[in-house]
Design goal:
single chain; alpha/beta; seven-stranded parallel sheet; three-stranded antiparallel sheet
Length: 250
């Protein structure tokens, strides 16, 4: 069927599609599109997600950071560079773990002094040579897969600090399920970070949309801004904005 072919060709380019966008493109009802997606999923050609379809399984398995670094590199760098512009003079910020926030550390150019609190060893290694940056490395058990710390020691430190912003990376970002990651203890640490920051900024390339991972971090109503790439659809952007989230496209 020609309609199915169009859906698969568009999905191959964009990795994630929204039902409403396909309705506009193909001039058919949402009922028809959902039926098409169900048939294509039964053939093993895509995965259905809430409100759309994805080329990748929406349920994420953990990948090593070395493998993640090779995915969506250009998009992550664009997001990171955009996020770096939000850091103010004499700021105090929290940086979580993950390859997108790790990329952020490469673009940080402090305006006078900057204090960075982070769970990521990779972020520290990028920033350690800049003497204008004061770094507080959270302590605890180190996750080999992510190069970041987890556990009660890190959580205890966070209970005694307050920062202007948290830059948070995620493994999955779903309209209903919220933000998620692959590790329960990392999700717990992320929640402590949320409580220690005044503004929550999520850095996520569009391949993360419609995906869920094992450990939920929080609902979408807890975040203030999403920085992503131009792969986000107009309808999904509107859904985020309707939840009060500022969406910035790098």
């Amino acid at each position: 069927m020609k309609r199915h072919q169009i859906i698969l060709e568009k999905l191959a380019k964009e990795k994630h599609l929204e039902v409403l966008d396909l309705c506009d493109l193909l001039q058919v009802s949402a009922v028809t599109i959902r039926k098409d997606l169900r048939l294509l999923e039964e053939k093993g050609l895509l995965f259905r997600t809430h409100g759309g379809a994805s080329l990748d399984n929406p349920y994420i398995n953990e990948k090593a950071i070395g493998e993640k670094e090779k995915i969506s590199v250009e998009e992550k760098n664009g997001i990171a560079e955009c996020a770096a512009q939000l850091i103010d003079e004499n700021d105090s910020i929290l940086i979580a773990s993950g390859t997108t926030v790790q990329a952020l550390s490469k673009f940080i150019k402090p305006k006078n002094k900057l204090t960075v609190i982070t769970s990521s060893l990779y972020v520290v290694m990028h920033l350690i040579h800049d003497k204008s940056i004061e770094i507080l490395q959270l302590g605890g058990y180190i996750r080999h897969s992510s190069g970041s710390v987890i556990g009660s020691y890190a959580e205890h430190i966070l209970a005694n600090v307050s920062c202007s912003k948290l830059f948070l990376g995620v493994d999955g970002l779903d309209i209903d399920y919220g933000l998620s990651t692959t590790n329960l203890e990392e999700a717990q640490l992320n929640r402590k970070m949320l409580a220690s920051a005044q503004r929550i900024i999520v850095l996520a390339d569009s391949s993360k949309f419609g995906k869920k991972s094992f450990a939920k971090i929080c609902d979408l109503d807890q975040i203030h801004e999403l920085i992503t790439d131009k792969g986000i659809s107009a309808s999904l952007k509107k859904k985020f904005e309707e939840k009060g989230i500022k969406v910035t496209i790098a």
